[in-house]
Amino acid sequence: MSQRTISSMVFRQMQSNFSSFSSSMNNVSKNYRPAITHIFEARYYSSNLGSKGNKEDEPAQAVKFDSNFENVDGQNGKAVVSSYWGVPPSRATKEDGSPWRWNCFRPWETYKADTSIDVTKHHKATTFMDKFAYWTVQSLKFPTYLFFQRRHMCHAMLLETVAAVPGMVGGMLLHLKSIRRFEHSGGWIKALLEEAENERMHLMTFLELSQPKWYQRALVFAVQGVFANAYFVSYVVSPKLAHRIVGYLEEEAVNSYTEFLIDLEKGLVENRPAPAIAIDYWQLPSESTLKDVVTVIRADEAHHRDLNHFASDIQCEGHELKEYPAPLGYH
């Protein structure tokens, strides 16, 4: 009988053939090992060019990163990371020529807030959708007020962690819709992402003034997980409803910051000096205080209120956002 396909004799023959092949390849590798070594040295030659000297001669230094970190070496004024694939890091300076200390935003991203905006404006709920959005926000407002009461700083930090979600979610979904339909967005992607970035900078400012406790961080973790998914679903189902909800949320944010300013004026909250990050971001005078910071943040929230109500009105009238140019640079 002939040999079976899977048998011990076949495996022995395959093993002997593989052993002879391995021994021949070892001889080849011994003869061409210098050439292979040079090839690998050439492969990493570009990486070696980026390093200065022998790394063993330089002691390892731990770099501490915080909000005041400057990406500059103290001895020779060079950046810690000299290049990234041959692209040097951008260097930014202030108008007076001093180095820019912030890596989270650049001088061309700063602005002076329009504090003349009407902070008392309210969109009257007339349709069923508007009433549903309004009372949804009202039902979410009372638990937070009972929890924080007059602790405005903690309330503001939680508010900004929630307010930074809709712009990112809406911008992402509009981005996917734009590339899925092969069409322009009318600038609304950029407008919503700018809104999310602006809300995040509000949070970074308050973090310089107060560090949240562990239970506040846990609350933010839970609220963001629920709200981000809920808003994602609502935006997929009805974008006009999602924008209307955010418009009412921003109205409540304006009211919260108004109460914050009232307590600052009464002296119930210490009117401490404004943090450096707020002075540079909003181009505030160097002698600005917390009251000035809360004033410009309230103006930002009022602009976000108008933008989202405007987006909802466009869609309620049967149009798409791309048909109307987004109010870019509305700050």
Automatic annotation (TrEMBL):
Cofactor: how bound: Binds 2 iron ions per subunit.
UniProt-listed InterPro entries: AOX, AOX_sf
Enzyme class: oxidoreductase
Binding annotation for Fe cation 1: 160, 199, 202, 301
Cofactor(s) recorded in Swiss-Prot or TrEMBL: Fe cation
Family label: Belongs to the alternative oxidase family.
Annotated protein name in UniProt: Ubiquinol oxidase
Organism of derivation: Olea europaea (Common olive)
